[in-house]
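Honest question from a wet-lab person: if I give you the sequences of every part of a complex, can you actually get the arrangement of the whole thing, not just the pieces? Trying it with mine:
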Amino acid sequence: MPLDEKPDATKRAFDVVGTRPLRPDGIDKVTGRAMFGADAFASGMLTGRVLRSPHAHARIRSIDTSKAEALAGVKAIVTAADFEDRDDDLRDVLVNCMARDKALYDGHAVAAVAATTPAVAKQALKLIEVDYEVLPHVIDVEDAMTDDAPILHDNIARDGKPSNIASTCEFGHGDPDKGFAEAEVVVERTFRTEATHQGYIEPHACLASVGPDGHGELWCCTQGNFMVRNTCAQLLGMDFSKLRVTASEIGGGFGGKTTVFLEPVALALSRKANRPVKMTMSREEVFRASGPTASSAIRVKVGLARDGRITAAEAELKYQGGAFPGSPVEMGAMAAFSCYDLENVKTFGYDVVANRPKQAAYRAPGAPMAAFAVESVIEELAEAIGMDPIDLRLKNAAKEGTKSSYGPTYKRIGLVETLEAAKAHPHYSAPLGPNQGRGVACGFWFNFGGETCVSLNVGKDGTVGLSLGTPDIGGSRASMCQIAAEELGIDYDQVYAIVADTAALGFNDVTEGSRVTFSSGLATIEAAREAIKKLCQRAAIMWDIPAEAVIWEDGHARPSGSNAGDFEPLSLKEIAAHSAETGGPIAGHHEINAAGAGPSFATHIVDAEVDPETGACWVTRYTVVQDAGKAIHPSYVEGQFQGGAVQGIGWALNEEYIYGDDGTLQNAGFLDYRIPVASDLPMIDTVIVEVPNPGHPYGVRGVGETSIVPPMAAIANAVSAAAGVRMTSLPMSPPRLLQAIDNSRKQAAE
Amino acid sequence: MRYEAPETIETAVTLLAGEKGLAHVLAGGTDLIVQMRTGRIEPDLVVDLKRISGMREIAEENGGYRIGAAVSGAEMGEHAGLKALWPGVVEAAELIGSTQIQGRATMVGNLCNASPAADAVPALVAAGATVRVAGPEGERDVAAHEIPTGPGETSLKKGELVASVYLPARPARAADAYLRFIPRTEMDIAVVGAGVYLALDEDGVCSDARVALGAVAPTILRVEEAAQALIGSKLDDEALDRLAAAASAAAQPIDDKRGTRDFRIKVAGVLARRAAAKALERARANS
Amino acid sequence: MSQIHVSTTINGDAVEYLCDAEESLLDVLRDRLRLTGSKEGCGTGDCGACSVMLDGRLVCSCLVLGAEADGRTVDTVEGMAKGDDLHPLQRKFLEHAALQCGICTPGFLVAAKDLLERNPDPSEEEVRYWLAGNLCRCTGYDKIVRAVLDTAAETKGA
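Yes, you can. This is the full assembly:
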């Protein structure tokens, strides 16, 4: 049976999909049994620690490890010299894991040690002597773009001169100049956002063991154990097949665990010491040396006709992605106007390097900043023409057949449905108190598919084991069990899912791009259908009738009709019990490079309250309306909506990377990197809209990332309304907000 | 490093005085252990006070309360008598950190850690608290504000420790209050803190006042001009305006990761005013 | 450097261990006793993932020295379920999908259990403030707060 080409998912009645069963890994996680990155131990295990640069930018003249090596209990030390240099696209990853000629940011790894105890390892780090030549540094994105900025990389040039602008990109269609000429109202503003960290509660951790025969084992918390295997094997010159990587339970990632940091270092130390090496980052190391997202400066200009139709839109986006090329500016430039049906649109992006940690993906990378800028301008335009902001968005909303601002034409999408649901939601018309304001904003994320592989094994007792290759970061094993149960027609409790190691399954792309429920779901459906085919064959053998005469219905093999014979239906369990006699184990398997991921759109409504005397600001009510296509496990879909919204609240109000004049990070801890705490927040109301994705037999769309796209704009719109002044910089921390309020009052008085 | 948990103050003092290297006192540990783990300090000796009798007790004394050095914020919050007498001090102590931190953090530790942003200290200073210092030369009582002398610096001499804090009896028609500004609702260090104590006469005129500000100078500031703005007034808007102006004028803050200089100056006035209003309400209820 | 001998009670069991003076209770629990249910998210008392009960007080075990536990009682997430019976909070966390990644869950459970034992009928605000020292980056806290409130309601109704 092929994947349904044009499913009518709305008509399909589901038994298991759409229900809210308990997750298979639940008991382990509420009893403390679940094994996360730092929870593994090995016989003879050493402790690995990293020495990090205290300078934002410095040439490494020499590293003397002799004193550290002489310390009792030190078993191995590695520096860049222990990794072969390379010139392919993994070089930046390698140099980020271990600085070569220069330290490029405060916290950049320069050496690592493995020792018998944490205390010895700590002492050894102090004995490593690094001779630095401190160089001028640059932190701010626009400073880094100036002609006289300190240059990070000699091999990046622009117009023949060394530059920190690694690349540019451009998207759009039509003629914006013509469109602006037709506009009656034009708003143009510049916005700034600070870098934020994914803030997963589990620091990076791994346990590596490499023997003298070149075989390696690696246990680590990652969003992609296959990515870790391929990357580490290449960096260390190992065969892919000789390095087995097992993904531990993962304590949050949000994109930040889609690359390697400690893993190649731990493997190198283990290889050198010929002992297992465990490494964990401290929280300070997580902030200083693992992926924050980009900081940005974005100029947006939008023109409007009197009737509310957008005549032209353009944006210039400058993203600083840390010390190496690869900021998410391209996705920001693609996503900026993705919610609108525009005749004339253009976006231009700059990818800029600066002396900060290499950015890592963070939930809808690049899009939240762009949406903050664009959706703030849309709100201001609605005010300018006195139109309801949802109506203005509805008038210009992208829909099926719209040519998107980044190129493709949309298939069926659900933006209009989210806007309509938001408008009808009681929140949108609820009265506001003093010093309160309301904001709305829309958001979009592409969603991805990618390489995926799933195995489904039918046990002789009639239970089903599902092997997935995408680490479960928020309940995906439950969703996969539901999908398998749905296809096979059996109970949810009969299916148990695990995340397989790299030796047990074919390659899987990383858990990212909101792809798991979509792609692993597709592969699970197909694996289940393959198993069903075999179950029918086995039933045919048991009945001694042709396989074509057997169909699968409600979890049972049945004769396809009366002329196929008169047999009692056979359950999966009954067929499985006889599998030895009918041909051996029964399994389904599927490999796919999944295409057809449908974008997910959302509309958020926020109420904020401001204390005009102190600049304190609270979110008092929050509603997320998002298109999930089809919610497999609605609780975890709601959880994604709520989690993304709250990360957005943190980004909007208080989270930021703060640098000193010396280019060192000032707030590398949860005390001063202020993520939202429970008492900061109201309940986060959710509305799941289901506009089926035509690219999936159940209509599934990824949901994980879109939820962080609208919040900053929606909150900025609410805060601006409450404070009476347009906020254009994030975070809207109390000092910034109070200054803006005071300035606007001074201006009003003049 | 050595860890010692003596059972008498004398032993604790002897240990501290006899240590040639760096010696630190451990009460709740919520500052000390953080500093040890992040490598900011590497003590050679840590002396845990919690096994010394009386250190974990709150005792009534001359109409006031003596609070042992190892009494946690949570224990203070659960003491009805203390809470009724000096609610501002208790609310300040209870603002320090999370529920988990409250289970350990002590007011004396907050004082001796000598952070300019310490929450308990402006409230202690406003309440007129004294502390009992034990040392090689015996015990002495000093005003709470004399302990911190600068960020991380105290007036304690080698071998000395603060054994208890004493909150005096409170006159009728008097009360205290403490407010702080933080960006979130919990878990932050004060960007500005304001402790206010005031007493009213029978006509409702302010007869005595003390105002202390946190996080706006290298040490907790006692702002006499702000107190004078209240004394003699009925705490009308005009007096409160003068209080706020005096508090802002006294503030000498810096720009840092927690706030700007301008922000702190303005908010010092706002908080002093709000704390005074809260203390006033309580003082009226105490008549 | 000689180690310190500690006799203590963990989850009702008498336990003895040797530890270094600098070692935190969290290090002892995880690395010496292999009770890895308590997690280290920050090591500075800011995230609550290492929450345990020490002599009936909720504390961050990363901010307690292992040596301090001598003669005291320690209760961790591993002691919450009694045999096969999950604690009502553990059950409600599962029912409400109050965990996504699950790294913060042990700390939340230990903290919430202490709350409900002190205050069997907390308001939403009381739950939120009590749990403000437990960071969760996945859920936005909504389902966690609901799970705690629902546990209280069920216990009250029972």
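Two things worth pointing out. Chain A touches chain C through 58 residues (CB under 8 Å). DSSP finds 21 helices and 28 strands in chain A.
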